[in-house]
Write a structure and sequence with these properties.
The protein has 19 helices and 9 strands. The protein is mainly alpha-helical. The chain has 3 domains: about 160 residues, HUPs (Rossmann fold, 3-Layer(aba) Sandwich), CATH 3.40.50; about 160 residues, Rossmann fold, CATH 3.40.50.620; about 110 residues, Orthogonal Bundle (Arc Repressor Mutant, subunit A). α6 crosses α7, α15 runs antiparallel to α19 and α16 crosses α18. The termini are far apart. It binds glutamic acid.
Amino acid sequence: MPSVRTRIAPSPTGDPHVGTAYVALVNYCFARKHGGEFVLRIEDTDQARSTAESERAILDALHWCGLTWDEGPDVGGPHGPYRQSERSSIYREYADKLLAGGYAFKCFCTPQRLEEMRAVQRASAQPSRYDGHCLSYTPEEVARREAAGQPYVIRMRVPDEGVIVVDDLRRGPIEFDYKSVDMQVLVKSDGLPTYHLANVVDDHLMEITHVIRGEEWVSSAPKHLLLYSYFGWQPPEFVHLPLLRNPDKSKLSKRRNPTGILFYERMGYLPEALINFLGLLANATREGEDELMDLTALVRRFELEHIPVGGPVFDVAKLDWLNGRYIRERLDAASFVRRVEEWAVSPERLTKIAQLAAPRIERLSDLAPLLAFLFSGRLALRAEDFKNVKLDAPEMREAFTLALREFDALPAWNVFGIEDVLKRIAQTLGKKGRDLARPFYVAITGSTTSIPLYDSMELLGRDIVRERLRGALEVV
Ligand code: GLU
Protein backbone atom coordinates (compact mmCIF):
# COMPACT_ATOMS: atom_id res chain seq x y z
CA MET A 1 0.00 0.00 0.00
CA PRO A 2 1.32 3.49 -0.75
CA SER A 3 2.37 5.46 2.30
CA VAL A 4 -0.10 8.23 1.61
CA ARG A 5 -3.74 8.06 0.60
CA THR A 6 -5.84 11.20 0.73
CA ARG A 7 -9.36 11.97 -0.36
CA ILE A 8 -11.81 14.71 -1.15
CA ALA A 9 -15.31 13.81 0.01
CA PRO A 10 -17.79 16.34 -1.35
CA SER A 11 -21.49 16.24 -0.56
CA PRO A 12 -23.42 16.77 -3.81
CA THR A 13 -25.86 19.30 -2.40
CA GLY A 14 -25.19 22.43 -4.41
CA ASP A 15 -22.94 24.18 -6.87
CA PRO A 16 -19.22 23.36 -6.80
CA HIS A 17 -17.53 25.68 -4.32
CA VAL A 18 -14.02 27.18 -4.58
CA GLY A 19 -13.43 25.87 -1.05
CA THR A 20 -13.90 22.33 -2.37
CA ALA A 21 -11.33 22.98 -5.10
CA TYR A 22 -8.96 24.34 -2.45
CA VAL A 23 -9.29 21.33 -0.16
CA ALA A 24 -9.10 18.97 -3.15
CA LEU A 25 -5.95 20.69 -4.37
CA VAL A 26 -4.23 20.37 -1.00
CA ASN A 27 -5.12 16.66 -0.82
CA TYR A 28 -4.00 16.19 -4.41
CA CYS A 29 -0.66 17.93 -3.87
CA PHE A 30 0.07 16.06 -0.66
CA ALA A 31 -0.70 12.67 -2.23
CA ARG A 32 1.23 13.38 -5.45
CA LYS A 33 4.19 14.82 -3.61
CA HIS A 34 4.56 11.57 -1.63
CA GLY A 35 3.88 9.26 -4.54
CA GLY A 36 0.57 8.39 -2.92
CA GLU A 37 -2.99 8.12 -4.12
CA PHE A 38 -5.86 10.58 -4.18
CA VAL A 39 -9.46 9.39 -3.94
CA LEU A 40 -12.75 11.11 -4.68
CA ARG A 41 -15.72 9.92 -2.63
CA ILE A 42 -19.26 11.22 -2.89
CA GLU A 43 -20.86 11.72 0.52
CA ASP A 44 -24.54 11.66 -0.34
CA THR A 45 -25.96 10.43 2.97
CA ASP A 46 -28.28 13.43 2.99
CA GLN A 47 -30.64 11.95 0.45
CA ALA A 48 -33.09 14.83 0.56
CA ARG A 49 -30.47 17.37 -0.50
CA SER A 50 -28.14 15.32 -2.70
CA THR A 51 -28.66 15.43 -6.45
CA ALA A 52 -27.06 13.75 -9.43
CA GLU A 53 -26.71 17.16 -11.16
CA SER A 54 -24.70 18.51 -8.27
CA GLU A 55 -22.45 15.45 -8.28
CA ARG A 56 -21.83 15.83 -12.00
CA ALA A 57 -21.20 19.56 -11.65
CA ILE A 58 -18.67 18.99 -8.85
CA LEU A 59 -16.77 16.35 -10.80
CA ASP A 60 -16.79 18.51 -13.93
CA ALA A 61 -15.63 21.56 -12.02
CA LEU A 62 -12.74 19.72 -10.36
CA HIS A 63 -11.74 18.28 -13.74
CA TRP A 64 -11.95 21.75 -15.24
CA CYS A 65 -9.50 22.87 -12.55
CA GLY A 66 -7.11 20.24 -13.88
CA LEU A 67 -7.40 17.85 -10.94
CA THR A 68 -7.55 14.08 -11.41
CA TRP A 69 -8.08 11.26 -8.94
CA ASP A 70 -6.93 7.66 -8.87
CA GLU A 71 -10.19 6.26 -7.55
CA GLY A 72 -13.71 7.61 -7.63
CA PRO A 73 -17.27 7.02 -8.80
CA ASP A 74 -16.35 7.93 -12.38
CA VAL A 75 -13.05 6.03 -12.63
CA GLY A 76 -13.72 3.10 -10.30
CA GLY A 77 -11.05 1.51 -8.16
CA PRO A 78 -10.45 -1.34 -5.72
CA HIS A 79 -12.25 0.27 -2.76
CA GLY A 80 -15.59 1.02 -4.42
CA PRO A 81 -18.37 1.82 -4.61
CA TYR A 82 -17.31 5.44 -4.11
CA ARG A 83 -20.79 6.80 -3.58
CA GLN A 84 -22.06 6.42 -0.02
CA SER A 85 -25.64 5.86 -1.16
CA GLU A 86 -24.41 2.60 -2.69
CA ARG A 87 -22.76 1.40 0.52
CA SER A 88 -25.73 1.21 2.91
CA SER A 89 -25.31 -2.48 3.76
CA ILE A 90 -21.68 -1.87 4.73
CA TYR A 91 -22.66 0.81 7.25
CA ARG A 92 -25.40 -1.35 8.68
CA GLU A 93 -22.90 -4.10 9.36
CA TYR A 94 -20.58 -1.72 11.22
CA ALA A 95 -23.45 -0.15 13.16
CA ASP A 96 -24.38 -3.64 14.33
CA LYS A 97 -20.80 -4.17 15.51
CA LEU A 98 -21.01 -1.02 17.59
CA LEU A 99 -24.35 -2.10 19.05
CA ALA A 100 -23.00 -5.55 19.88
CA GLY A 101 -19.97 -4.05 21.61
CA GLY A 102 -22.11 -1.68 23.66
CA TYR A 103 -20.57 1.34 21.93
CA ALA A 104 -23.86 2.45 20.46
CA PHE A 105 -27.49 2.20 21.52
CA LYS A 106 -30.96 2.44 20.09
CA CYS A 107 -32.72 5.66 20.92
CA PHE A 108 -36.51 5.76 20.77
CA CYS A 109 -36.92 9.39 21.82
CA THR A 110 -39.57 11.21 19.85
CA PRO A 111 -38.76 14.53 18.14
CA GLN A 112 -41.06 16.12 20.68
CA ARG A 113 -39.13 14.76 23.68
CA LEU A 114 -35.84 15.87 22.11
CA GLU A 115 -37.25 19.35 21.56
CA GLU A 116 -38.35 19.58 25.21
CA MET A 117 -34.92 18.39 26.33
CA ARG A 118 -33.23 21.05 24.20
CA ALA A 119 -35.54 23.76 25.49
CA VAL A 120 -34.55 22.89 29.07
CA GLN A 121 -30.86 22.89 28.09
CA ARG A 122 -31.23 26.24 26.38
CA ALA A 123 -33.02 27.74 29.36
CA SER A 124 -30.17 26.73 31.67
CA ALA A 125 -27.49 27.70 29.11
CA GLN A 126 -26.16 24.14 28.88
CA PRO A 127 -24.65 22.83 25.66
CA SER A 128 -27.18 21.02 23.49
CA ARG A 129 -26.41 17.33 23.98
CA TYR A 130 -28.46 14.15 24.11
CA ASP A 131 -29.14 13.39 27.78
CA GLY A 132 -28.76 9.61 27.59
CA HIS A 133 -32.42 8.89 28.34
CA CYS A 134 -32.63 5.65 26.31
CA LEU A 135 -29.38 4.31 27.80
CA SER A 136 -31.38 3.30 30.86
CA TYR A 137 -33.55 0.80 28.94
CA THR A 138 -32.98 -2.90 29.63
CA PRO A 139 -32.43 -5.20 26.64
CA GLU A 140 -36.01 -6.50 27.22
CA GLU A 141 -37.41 -2.98 27.09
CA VAL A 142 -35.51 -2.26 23.87
CA ALA A 143 -36.79 -5.53 22.35
CA ARG A 144 -40.36 -4.75 23.42
CA ARG A 145 -40.26 -1.30 21.81
CA GLU A 146 -38.73 -2.65 18.64
CA ALA A 147 -41.34 -5.42 18.44
CA ALA A 148 -44.04 -2.79 18.87
CA GLY A 149 -42.64 -1.10 15.77
CA GLN A 150 -41.42 2.06 17.53
CA PRO A 151 -39.05 4.00 15.28
CA TYR A 152 -35.52 4.44 16.61
CA VAL A 153 -32.14 5.88 15.68
CA ILE A 154 -28.75 4.48 16.65
CA ARG A 155 -26.56 6.82 18.68
CA MET A 156 -22.94 6.48 19.69
CA ARG A 157 -22.04 6.37 23.35
CA VAL A 158 -19.78 9.08 24.70
CA PRO A 159 -18.08 8.80 28.08
CA ASP A 160 -19.51 11.12 30.73
CA GLU A 161 -16.18 12.17 32.17
CA GLY A 162 -12.78 13.03 30.84
CA VAL A 163 -11.28 14.55 27.72
CA ILE A 164 -10.30 13.40 24.26
CA VAL A 165 -7.41 14.89 22.35
CA VAL A 166 -7.44 15.36 18.59
CA ASP A 167 -3.89 15.56 17.34
CA ASP A 168 -4.08 17.84 14.35
CA LEU A 169 -0.87 17.65 12.30
CA ARG A 170 -0.97 21.36 11.61
CA ARG A 171 -2.50 22.77 14.79
CA GLY A 172 -1.17 20.38 17.37
CA PRO A 173 -3.27 18.72 20.05
CA ILE A 174 -6.82 20.02 20.51
CA GLU A 175 -8.55 18.93 23.70
CA PHE A 176 -12.30 18.27 23.90
CA ASP A 177 -14.21 17.68 27.11
CA TYR A 178 -16.52 14.67 26.66
CA LYS A 179 -19.28 16.80 28.14
CA SER A 180 -19.18 18.91 24.97
CA VAL A 181 -19.34 15.89 22.64
CA ASP A 182 -22.87 14.89 21.64
CA MET A 183 -24.08 11.29 21.50
CA GLN A 184 -24.25 11.59 17.76
CA VAL A 185 -26.90 9.82 15.71
CA LEU A 186 -25.05 7.27 13.57
CA VAL A 187 -28.01 5.62 11.86
CA LYS A 188 -31.25 7.47 11.17
CA SER A 189 -34.70 5.99 11.70
CA ASP A 190 -34.85 5.07 8.00
CA GLY A 191 -31.83 2.80 8.52
CA LEU A 192 -29.45 5.05 6.58
CA PRO A 193 -26.19 6.25 8.12
CA THR A 194 -25.31 9.81 9.01
CA TYR A 195 -22.18 11.51 7.74
CA HIS A 196 -20.21 10.58 10.87
CA LEU A 197 -20.59 6.82 10.64
CA ALA A 198 -20.21 6.66 6.86
CA ASN A 199 -17.20 8.97 6.88
CA VAL A 200 -15.25 6.97 9.48
CA VAL A 201 -16.12 3.56 8.02
CA ASP A 202 -15.18 4.70 4.52
CA ASP A 203 -11.95 6.41 5.49
CA HIS A 204 -10.94 3.19 7.19
CA LEU A 205 -12.04 0.80 4.43
CA MET A 206 -10.58 3.04 1.75
CA GLU A 207 -7.31 3.05 3.67
CA ILE A 208 -7.09 6.82 3.92
CA THR A 209 -3.95 7.79 5.78
CA HIS A 210 -4.46 11.56 5.99
CA VAL A 211 -7.82 13.25 6.44
CA ILE A 212 -7.25 16.80 5.23
CA ARG A 213 -10.45 18.82 5.37
CA GLY A 214 -11.94 22.18 6.24
CA GLU A 215 -11.83 23.47 9.79
CA GLU A 216 -15.62 23.36 10.03
CA TRP A 217 -15.13 19.65 10.76
CA VAL A 218 -12.88 20.09 13.79
CA SER A 219 -15.78 19.68 16.18
CA SER A 220 -16.67 16.35 14.51
CA ALA A 221 -13.14 15.01 14.97
CA PRO A 222 -13.58 13.87 18.62
CA LYS A 223 -16.63 11.81 17.58
CA HIS A 224 -14.69 10.32 14.71
CA LEU A 225 -11.71 9.53 16.91
CA LEU A 226 -14.00 7.80 19.42
CA LEU A 227 -15.51 5.71 16.62
CA TYR A 228 -12.04 4.64 15.48
CA SER A 229 -11.26 3.50 19.00
CA TYR A 230 -14.61 1.66 19.34
CA PHE A 231 -13.86 -0.24 16.15
CA GLY A 232 -10.30 -0.87 17.27
CA TRP A 233 -8.91 0.87 14.19
CA GLN A 234 -5.83 3.00 13.81
CA PRO A 235 -7.13 6.52 13.09
CA PRO A 236 -5.73 8.50 10.15
CA GLU A 237 -3.75 11.70 10.65
CA PHE A 238 -6.00 14.75 10.77
CA VAL A 239 -5.37 18.18 9.30
CA HIS A 240 -8.06 20.84 9.50
CA LEU A 241 -7.51 23.58 6.96
CA PRO A 242 -8.47 27.17 7.74
CA LEU A 243 -11.46 28.45 5.80
CA LEU A 244 -10.90 30.88 2.99
CA ARG A 245 -11.62 34.48 3.97
CA ASN A 246 -12.59 37.75 2.35
CA PRO A 247 -10.02 40.57 2.41
CA ASP A 248 -11.86 41.94 5.49
CA LYS A 249 -11.21 38.54 7.17
CA SER A 250 -14.88 37.55 7.25
CA LYS A 251 -15.70 34.01 6.15
CA LEU A 252 -16.01 33.59 2.40
CA SER A 253 -19.73 33.15 1.98
CA LYS A 254 -21.94 32.95 -1.04
CA ARG A 255 -24.36 35.36 0.57
CA ARG A 256 -21.81 38.11 0.08
CA ASN A 257 -19.45 36.93 -2.65
CA PRO A 258 -19.41 34.55 -5.53
CA THR A 259 -17.96 31.30 -4.26
CA GLY A 260 -18.88 28.98 -7.11
CA ILE A 261 -16.20 27.53 -9.37
CA LEU A 262 -18.64 28.01 -12.26
CA PHE A 263 -18.73 31.72 -11.53
CA TYR A 264 -14.99 32.00 -12.08
CA GLU A 265 -15.28 29.86 -15.19
CA ARG A 266 -18.05 32.05 -16.62
CA MET A 267 -16.17 35.21 -15.70
CA GLY A 268 -13.38 34.01 -17.96
CA TYR A 269 -10.73 32.96 -15.51
CA LEU A 270 -8.41 30.27 -16.77
CA PRO A 271 -8.42 27.08 -14.71
CA GLU A 272 -4.64 27.09 -14.39
CA ALA A 273 -4.77 30.62 -12.97
CA LEU A 274 -7.45 29.67 -10.45
CA ILE A 275 -5.57 26.56 -9.34
CA ASN A 276 -2.30 28.52 -9.17
CA PHE A 277 -4.06 31.11 -7.04
CA LEU A 278 -5.52 28.48 -4.69
CA GLY A 279 -2.14 26.76 -4.51
CA LEU A 280 -0.52 30.01 -3.35
CA LEU A 281 -3.14 30.28 -0.60
CA ALA A 282 -1.99 26.89 0.65
CA ASN A 283 1.75 27.47 0.21
CA ALA A 284 2.83 31.08 -0.30
CA THR A 285 5.94 31.80 -2.34
CA ARG A 286 9.25 32.52 -0.70
CA GLU A 287 11.47 35.52 -1.40
CA GLY A 288 12.40 35.75 -5.05
CA GLU A 289 10.16 32.91 -6.24
CA ASP A 290 7.88 33.57 -9.21
CA GLU A 291 4.23 33.26 -8.25
CA LEU A 292 3.24 31.92 -11.65
CA MET A 293 3.33 28.13 -11.42
CA ASP A 294 1.48 25.21 -12.86
CA LEU A 295 0.07 22.22 -11.02
CA THR A 296 3.28 20.22 -11.37
CA ALA A 297 5.24 23.02 -9.76
CA LEU A 298 2.63 23.38 -7.01
CA VAL A 299 3.02 19.68 -6.22
CA ARG A 300 6.80 19.84 -6.27
CA ARG A 301 7.04 22.62 -3.69
CA PHE A 302 4.05 21.57 -1.57
CA GLU A 303 4.59 21.34 2.19
CA LEU A 304 1.84 20.57 4.65
CA GLU A 305 3.83 22.48 7.28
CA HIS A 306 3.63 25.67 5.24
CA ILE A 307 -0.15 25.84 5.11
CA PRO A 308 -1.14 28.91 7.09
CA VAL A 309 -3.07 28.31 10.27
CA GLY A 310 -4.92 31.64 9.93
CA GLY A 311 -7.52 31.85 7.16
CA PRO A 312 -5.95 32.63 3.76
CA VAL A 313 -7.49 35.62 2.01
CA PHE A 314 -9.32 35.01 -1.24
CA ASP A 315 -8.20 38.22 -2.88
CA VAL A 316 -9.86 38.50 -6.28
CA ALA A 317 -7.50 41.32 -7.30
CA LYS A 318 -4.62 38.89 -6.98
CA LEU A 319 -6.51 36.30 -9.02
CA ASP A 320 -7.14 38.94 -11.72
CA TRP A 321 -3.46 39.73 -11.84
CA LEU A 322 -2.44 36.08 -12.12
CA ASN A 323 -5.09 35.43 -14.76
CA GLY A 324 -3.83 38.37 -16.80
CA ARG A 325 -0.32 37.01 -16.59
CA TYR A 326 -1.46 33.59 -17.83
CA ILE A 327 -3.22 35.19 -20.78
CA ARG A 328 -0.20 37.29 -21.67
CA GLU A 329 2.66 34.96 -20.79
CA ARG A 330 1.40 31.43 -21.18
CA LEU A 331 -0.97 31.41 -24.15
CA ASP A 332 0.34 31.67 -27.68
CA ALA A 333 -1.99 33.02 -30.36
CA ALA A 334 -3.41 29.62 -31.27
CA SER A 335 -4.12 28.51 -27.74
CA PHE A 336 -5.59 31.90 -26.93
CA VAL A 337 -8.08 31.49 -29.78
CA ARG A 338 -8.90 28.02 -28.62
CA ARG A 339 -9.55 29.22 -25.09
CA VAL A 340 -11.81 32.04 -26.28
CA GLU A 341 -13.72 29.60 -28.40
CA GLU A 342 -14.14 27.12 -25.56
CA TRP A 343 -15.22 29.82 -23.19
CA ALA A 344 -17.56 31.83 -25.37
CA VAL A 345 -18.99 29.58 -28.03
CA SER A 346 -18.84 25.93 -27.24
CA PRO A 347 -21.04 24.26 -29.91
CA GLU A 348 -23.73 23.47 -27.35
CA ARG A 349 -23.87 27.00 -26.00
CA LEU A 350 -23.71 28.58 -29.43
CA THR A 351 -26.65 26.51 -30.68
CA LYS A 352 -28.76 27.63 -27.79
CA ILE A 353 -27.78 31.28 -28.13
CA ALA A 354 -28.31 31.32 -31.90
CA GLN A 355 -31.80 29.85 -31.55
CA LEU A 356 -32.75 32.48 -29.01
CA ALA A 357 -31.23 35.38 -30.94
CA ALA A 358 -32.37 34.60 -34.49
CA PRO A 359 -36.01 35.75 -34.08
CA ARG A 360 -34.84 39.09 -32.67
CA ILE A 361 -32.34 40.38 -35.21
CA GLU A 362 -32.39 41.74 -38.75
CA ARG A 363 -28.66 41.81 -39.37
CA LEU A 364 -25.90 39.69 -37.92
CA SER A 365 -24.37 42.92 -36.70
CA ASP A 366 -27.30 43.22 -34.31
CA LEU A 367 -25.91 40.26 -32.44
CA ALA A 368 -23.15 41.98 -30.54
CA PRO A 369 -25.31 44.63 -28.82
CA LEU A 370 -28.07 42.07 -28.21
CA LEU A 371 -25.79 39.48 -26.64
CA ALA A 372 -22.97 41.48 -25.09
CA PHE A 373 -24.33 40.83 -21.59
CA LEU A 374 -23.71 37.10 -22.04
CA PHE A 375 -20.01 37.70 -22.55
CA SER A 376 -19.54 40.29 -19.84
CA GLY A 377 -18.66 40.07 -16.18
CA ARG A 378 -20.18 42.71 -13.94
CA LEU A 379 -22.45 45.25 -15.64
CA ALA A 380 -21.96 48.97 -15.15
CA LEU A 381 -25.54 49.66 -14.04
CA ARG A 382 -26.80 53.11 -13.05
CA ALA A 383 -29.92 54.11 -11.12
CA GLU A 384 -31.32 55.71 -14.33
CA ASP A 385 -31.35 52.33 -16.04
CA PHE A 386 -34.25 51.39 -13.78
CA LYS A 387 -36.33 54.52 -14.27
CA ASN A 388 -38.95 53.16 -16.68
CA VAL A 389 -40.02 50.24 -14.54
CA LYS A 390 -43.27 49.80 -12.65
CA LEU A 391 -41.68 48.95 -9.29
CA ASP A 392 -40.40 51.62 -6.93
CA ALA A 393 -36.97 51.36 -5.36
CA PRO A 394 -38.02 49.59 -2.11
CA GLU A 395 -40.06 47.09 -4.14
CA MET A 396 -37.11 46.40 -6.43
CA ARG A 397 -34.85 45.95 -3.44
CA GLU A 398 -37.29 43.49 -1.94
CA ALA A 399 -37.70 41.62 -5.22
CA PHE A 400 -33.93 41.33 -5.80
CA THR A 401 -33.28 40.32 -2.21
CA LEU A 402 -35.96 37.63 -2.34
CA ALA A 403 -34.61 36.40 -5.66
CA LEU A 404 -31.05 36.20 -4.31
CA ARG A 405 -32.29 33.96 -1.53
CA GLU A 406 -34.60 31.81 -3.60
CA PHE A 407 -32.17 31.36 -6.48
CA ASP A 408 -29.61 30.18 -4.01
CA ALA A 409 -32.00 27.51 -2.74
CA LEU A 410 -33.13 26.23 -6.16
CA PRO A 411 -32.14 22.57 -6.46
CA ALA A 412 -31.57 22.77 -10.22
CA TRP A 413 -30.68 25.85 -12.25
CA ASN A 414 -32.94 25.94 -15.29
CA VAL A 415 -35.68 28.07 -16.88
CA PHE A 416 -38.46 26.24 -15.04
CA GLY A 417 -37.06 26.81 -11.58
CA ILE A 418 -36.21 30.42 -12.43
CA GLU A 419 -39.71 31.08 -13.73
CA ASP A 420 -41.29 29.60 -10.58
CA VAL A 421 -39.19 31.84 -8.36
CA LEU A 422 -40.10 34.99 -10.27
CA LYS A 423 -43.78 34.07 -10.28
CA ARG A 424 -43.72 33.54 -6.54
CA ILE A 425 -42.02 36.88 -5.98
CA ALA A 426 -44.59 38.64 -8.20
CA GLN A 427 -47.31 37.11 -6.04
CA THR A 428 -45.62 38.07 -2.79
CA LEU A 429 -45.31 41.67 -3.97
CA GLY A 430 -48.75 41.71 -5.56
CA LYS A 431 -47.29 42.63 -8.98
CA LYS A 432 -47.98 41.46 -12.51
CA GLY A 433 -45.38 39.05 -13.86
CA ARG A 434 -44.52 41.44 -16.68
CA ASP A 435 -43.96 44.37 -14.33
CA LEU A 436 -41.69 42.30 -12.15
CA ALA A 437 -39.73 40.90 -15.09
CA ARG A 438 -38.65 44.32 -16.37
CA PRO A 439 -36.33 45.36 -13.54
CA PHE A 440 -34.87 41.87 -13.59
CA TYR A 441 -34.26 42.27 -17.29
CA VAL A 442 -32.31 45.44 -16.65
CA ALA A 443 -30.39 43.94 -13.75
CA ILE A 444 -29.39 40.84 -15.70
CA THR A 445 -28.92 42.07 -19.26
CA GLY A 446 -28.32 45.79 -18.72
CA SER A 447 -31.02 46.67 -21.25
CA THR A 448 -34.72 46.21 -21.89
CA THR A 449 -34.43 44.45 -25.22
CA SER A 450 -32.64 41.19 -25.39
CA ILE A 451 -33.20 37.49 -25.62
CA PRO A 452 -35.78 35.97 -23.22
CA LEU A 453 -35.10 36.59 -19.55
CA TYR A 454 -35.29 33.08 -18.11
CA ASP A 455 -33.11 31.64 -20.85
CA SER A 456 -30.61 34.43 -20.36
CA MET A 457 -30.43 33.62 -16.69
CA GLU A 458 -29.99 29.92 -17.34
CA LEU A 459 -27.21 30.61 -19.82
CA LEU A 460 -25.40 32.99 -17.49
CA GLY A 461 -25.49 30.55 -14.60
CA ARG A 462 -26.63 30.99 -11.04
CA ASP A 463 -23.56 32.74 -9.69
CA ILE A 464 -23.34 35.42 -12.37
CA VAL A 465 -27.07 36.10 -12.00
CA ARG A 466 -26.70 36.47 -8.25
CA GLU A 467 -23.68 38.72 -8.72
CA ARG A 468 -25.67 40.96 -11.09
CA LEU A 469 -28.58 41.12 -8.68
CA ARG A 470 -26.14 42.19 -5.98
CA GLY A 471 -24.84 44.81 -8.41
CA ALA A 472 -28.39 46.03 -9.08
CA LEU A 473 -29.09 46.21 -5.34
CA GLU A 474 -26.17 48.59 -5.00
CA VAL A 475 -27.68 51.11 -7.44
CA VAL A 476 -31.47 50.97 -6.92
N1 GLU B 1 -18.84 15.47 3.09
C1 GLU B 1 -18.05 16.40 3.84
C2 GLU B 1 -18.05 17.72 3.08
O1 GLU B 1 -18.94 17.96 2.36
C3 GLU B 1 -16.67 15.86 4.01
C4 GLU B 1 -16.02 16.24 5.28
C5 GLU B 1 -14.76 15.44 5.46
O2 GLU B 1 -13.86 15.62 4.66
O3 GLU B 1 -14.70 14.64 6.39
O4 GLU B 1 -17.19 18.54 3.19
